[in-house]
Amino acid sequence: MTVRTRIAPSPTGDPHVGTAYIALFNLCFARQHGGQFILRIEDTDRVRSTAESEQMILDSLRWLGVEWDEGPDVGGPHGPYRQSERGDIYAEHARQLIESGHAFKCYRTSEELDELRESRKAAGMHLALKPADLALPADEQARRENEGWPHVVRMQVPANGTCVIQDMLRGTIEVDWAQVDAQILLKSDGMPTYHLANVVDDHLMGITHVLRGEEWINSAPKHQLLYEYFGWEMPELCHMPLLRNPDKSKLSKRKNPTSINYYRRMGYLPQAVTNYLGRMGWSMPDEREKFSLDEMMAHFDIQRVSLGGPVFDLEKLTWLNGLYIREDLDDEGFLKALMEWAFNEQYVKEILPQVRPRVETFSEVAPLAGHFFSGVPAISETSFDAVKLGREDLVKLLQFLVWRFEVLPAWNKEALLGEVKALSAHFEMKMKDLLAPVFIAITGSSASTSVMDAMAILGSDMTRARLRHAIAVLGGVSKKQAKRFEKEYREL
C-alpha cells in the first residue's frame, strides 16, 4: 500500500498557521513512508471562497518549503482538485445514499428548525436533530416536494448507542450517537458540505491516512458512518492537538497573529517558521530545537506527537528566527534574504509612486517610507493626543475597522475606501477626521504617505496587526466595552 495523505484548506481568508502546521505533519508522515502528499482545495463556500485566497495558500505553503505531489496547480491522476469543480460527483453519491435509504431530502425551513431546537432545549433534551425529529407528515413532504421547495440532503444517523472510533494517537474514542445530528450532506444550492465532500474525495483520491485537527473528532462518527454506507474502507485517522495561545486558549487572531503572511511580512525566515511549526507537539529523537525540514522528514515518527496542546509562543519563534539569522546567514546570505523580504524590485515598485512625488532628496525616503519596511510602529497613548476623539470612541472606531477588514473578500484600495466611507457615515465624521487615528496606527506618524495606499500595499495581515496593536496601546477593549461595541456593530 502506498501511503497517501492530504491537506484540504478552504480559500476563505488569509493562510492560517494552523493550516501550515497540519500540512507539515501530513507531508512528513507521507515522506516517512515513501508516500505521496496531496493538496485539495475545499471551495464549496461560494460566498467566501476566492481565487486570491487560494493563491495565497499555495504561495505561503511553498514559501515554507511544503510541496505537494498532486494539486490544483500541478495536476494529477485524481483531479479535479477543487471541490467546486466536482459537483456532479457529489450529487451522484448523494443520490446513491438516498436510493439506499441512508440519506433523505429534508424540506424543513430555517424557522421550523429553530423552533425544533428551542423546544428541545426547553425540554432539556439533546440538541442534535435526528431523522425522526425532522420528519414531516407524508402528505406535507409530498406537497413540498411537488411544489419544488428548497431542500437539503441529510444523512441517516442512529438515535442511540455508541460509535467507536480508532485514532492513531488517541487509541479508542467513543462518541454517543445521541450527540450526532442528521448531518446535511448536500446544501440547498446543490453544493456539498465538508462531510460528504471530504469522505467522497478521500476515497476517490486514495487517501490512506487522515491527519487533521482534533476539532474534527466529533465529526468522525459521521464520516465513519458514510464509509460504511458506501461500503468503502476508511482511512486511518489521526487527530492532531490544536495550537494554543500562551494562555492555553485556542489559537486565535485576536490574541496572536495567525496568518502566515504576517510572519512573512514581518521578516521571519521561512525555515525558522517551518522549524517552529515542526516543534508544535513533536520533537526530534535527540530533542534538539533547531532542525531543517529535511531532517524532520528523515526522523519523523507520528508517535512522538504529544497530545498536550502545543503553545504558539511568538517570543520563542522570534528567538529561533534570530538563531537562524545569526548561525545560518553569512553577510551574503543576509543581504540576499533582506532583499527577498522587502527590498526587492516588485515591492519597491509598489511603494515608489507613494514616495517619489513627496521627496526632494534621497535622504528623505527612509523617514517617509519607513513604515513599509517595519513591523508594528513604535507608538504610545500620547501618539493619539491630537486626535479629536474620546478614548472609548477612538478604540471603538479602530475596533470596528478591524472587524470590517476581517470579512473583506478583496483587499484593494477601492474596497478599503468603501469600508472607511461606511464607518465615516456611521460615526458621522468627516473622512479626514476618521482617518487621523488610522494614519497613526498604520504609519506611526501623523504625516506620511497616503494611509489608504499604505494599507493596500502592506496587505490585510499587517494592516490588521497594526490596528490591533494601536488598540492594545490605547488600553484594549474590556469585556463590558466588547459587549457594547458588538451590539452597536451588529446594527451597523
Describe this structure in words.
With 492 residues, the chain is mainly α. 47% of the residues lie in helices and 8% in strands. The protein is built from 21 helices and 9 strands. Helix 16 runs antiparallel to helix 17 (413-426). The termini are far apart. The mean pLDDT is 94.
**In which range does the helix fraction lie?**
40-55%
Q: Whole-number average pLDDT?
A: 94
The SSE string, one letter per element, is EHEHHEHHHEEEEHEHEHHHHHHHHHHHHH
How many beta-strand elements?
Answer: 9
Total of helices: 21
Spatial gap, N to C terminus: 56 Å
Helix/strand layout:
Blueprint: E1 4-7, H1 17-32, E2 36-39, H2 51-63, H3 87-99, E3 103-106, H4 110-122, H5 131-134, H6 138-146, E4 152-155, E5 162-167, E6 171-176, E7 184-186, H7 194-204, E8 209-213, H8 220-230, E9 236-240, H9 260-266, H10 270-278, H11 293-299, H12 314-328, H13 331-341, H14 345-355, H15 365-369, H16 391-406, H17 413-426, H18 431-443, H19 451-458, H20 460-473, H21 479-490
Helix pairs in contact: 1-11, 7-8, 10-12, 16-17, 16-20, 18-20
What's the quick description here?
With 492 residues, the protein is mainly alpha-helical. The protein has 21 helices and 9 strands. The longest helix is centred in the first third of the chain and has 16 residues, at 17-32.
Give me some keywords for this one.
single chain, two-stranded parallel ribbon, 492 residues, 3-stranded antiparallel sheet, mainly alpha, 21 helices
